[in-house]
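Appendix B. One record, verbatim.
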Amino acid sequence: MQNRLKDQTSPYLLQHAENPVDWYPWCDEAFARARAEDKPVFLSIGYSTCHWCHVMAHESFEDQEVAALLNQYFISIKVDKEERPDIDSIYMAVCQAFTGSGGWPTTVFLTPDQKPFFAGTYFPKTARYGQPGLKELLLAVHESWTVNREGLLKSAEDIIAHLSGASAPAGSVDLRLRQKSDSKGSVGLHLSQGEDSTGRMESPLIRQAVEYFKRTFDGEYGGFGGYRKEPKFPTPHNLLFLMRYYKESKDREALKMAEKTLLQMYRGGMFDHIGGGFCRYSTDRYFLVPHFEKMLYDNALLILAYCKAYQITKNKLYRDVAEKTAAYVLREMTSAAGGFYSAQDADSEGVEGKYYLLEPAEIIGILGVRAGSEFNAYFDITEEGNFEGKSIPNRLKRHEIGGETGDNGDDRIGSGNPDGFSDGSAENITACLQTVYEYRRQRYALHLDDKILTAWNGLMIAAMCRLYRVTADSAYLDAALNAQKFIRENLCEQDTLYVSWRDGKRSGKGFLDDYAFEIFALLELYGATLESSYLDDACRFCGKAINEFYDEVSGGFFLYGRDGEQLIIRPKETYDGAVFSGNSAMAYNLVQLYLITGDERFGERAEDQLQFMSGEAADYPAGHAMFLIALSDYLDVPDKITVVPKDERDLAGLSCKIPLDTVINVLDGPTEEYPLKNDRTTFYVCRGRSCQPPVNELGL
């Protein structure tokens, strides 16, 4: 039996196309039928690599008894959160309001007018785990809909009222720092921040965030959290913020927190030591046992973080981790046409992590006794195992848990370090890894979510650009250029972006994140190639984002555009979760465009967005790290280099010689303000609000 999902392109929806549940995709037809038949709507939101989505599907949505209840008493709708982030954002907020937390699968009961009256996440088929069973819940909701409709409708109205007031206008924080003349010509500076002893401008929000990270840092094992400190999510934008803070403040504790976390994430089981790339998060305090799904956005943001750590410390380990992660993405997550796929599943044959787990005898069987024994010892593959009787390869035991790292700057596999393989041969070690990798791939299969998302591709394009700049390896720049070409040819029409591409079809018009992350990517492409066309495109898409998503009344950017489907509310996402928010990204983009171009239109919009985000971040600054990076760049302007080329050939490879986060502006040629010096390509460098004499060679 096939249901109405059979013609969809979303891998998640197609996973449910054979369910006995009479699923609809999100559409007017489903709600019209709910009104006509006077039935509530059962809404289920998830994504194709979600472990608990699979569990609930197998237990309930493939079950005839549950399907019969859903088909008799409800109109059932399935939504892929990655294709419809607008729907996911609204009903995830509903779930959090009802339960105090959220997650996927998200389960929501709606009126035929899309108003929610009850929500939760995973429900087993029958009551267990201290949770009500879905079967009992469906019967209870049906009974309430029949005999207590008024109470459910009041609940729906109350939750809508609550959500509609969730995004209050920004407070009275005034961030206008640029000098402006009033009608009498006098100049005023309105400062809501102060100077430190070095004369640096610093917002109280930045200081509060740093203090929060210091209070919640796990000094033994890295990462941040409350009392239990688990699970631990990578949130690389928090680490980027701490490293940005260290660069300006020289607060070594900020750098130490970032480094400890980066090292522990790599050494533990979150990093796939056999195939490269990072899993979703750590289920324990030690970064040993991950949740095994791999997401494109995590790996993109982690490449950015490891590149930044390498630039600051010159520890080759960080560059090595970034390159191994990129190698995984290029090998397993890149389409023939250049776009990057979305995710790989945590499960194989219905078992979480089965693909990644190894036993000593397996390794000895494929490598031989000597090499296999050394390999097992190196990666802590033991008879007793560390996860359900088998082993997640890791390198934690080589570095005493909780002790000092003792890094000498070269902790790479095959680097000849004394705790590596006995013969110290990088070639032999690489061969062993390749052999184990091929063996592992042949044992079990991983489900690949092969849709190509504009927003997540933007993040990976940016990551590949930065990796190119720290390695000078053109393969990474080529990957970024190919992915951008894919977006331009398949997910873009003039200045309109679309959400996703799969099986030759693209989905609906883009959301804020699609524009914000594409602009982010274009800025990084400009920084890597120094080609003005990418800057021009960034400016063009930024104008489109302002016209389509900006709230001229209260400030900030809405999640969906003016001509998008109008849902029960129009949310603004400002909090940085696993990925930084579109509003944080737009704050960063606007600041960068203003710093690069000097265009007052971008400067004014940047100020407005920083103003809005300051109000949003006031209660929890640490939850808005990407915005704080933008604010830091606005208050303490990074180094800026204006390049006046004598010959375009002088630009080749230049970006690899310039530190990350430097503002670069390449002119078409000399001007009256920026003439050539000695009739050669000339660099005008400004640092710390002062400009240096023009030079023909960069001494950075």
